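Protein modeling request. Please complete all fields; requests missing the sequence field cannot be processed.
Requester role: graduate student
Desired output: 3D structure, token encoding
Chains: 1
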Amino acid sequence: MKKAELTYIIDDDNIFVFVLKKLLEKNENFVQVKDFKNGEDVLDILEKNSEFPDIILLDINMPVVDGWQFLQKLEELPNKEKLKVFVMSSSIDVADVEKSKEFTTVKNYISKPINQEKLNELLSLL
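Delivered output (126 residues):
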């Protein structure tokens, strides 16, 4: 199974982020994890080419820059092919799942809650 040296969590739900980070820390295949409350700070990092995560775990509903806005801006980056985004949402709306497939950086849509099995499945897609 491939290791994710750097993983970004972009989600404004503090409790969900806390639990997800604990799950990731228990899994030896996730080395370093950083979390962000919205996509704006991550876009700044990516636009400056200062670092590139192996995985971005992205929520859809957030303040400032939501998941859809983040994905649209991500599509404009010249180095977007390096990125692997996994949309995480409590929404099971088929329209959201289908919309996520429109973005080349999105590798999969994962419904919350997240468990160890879903994380292992995610790693298998790297």
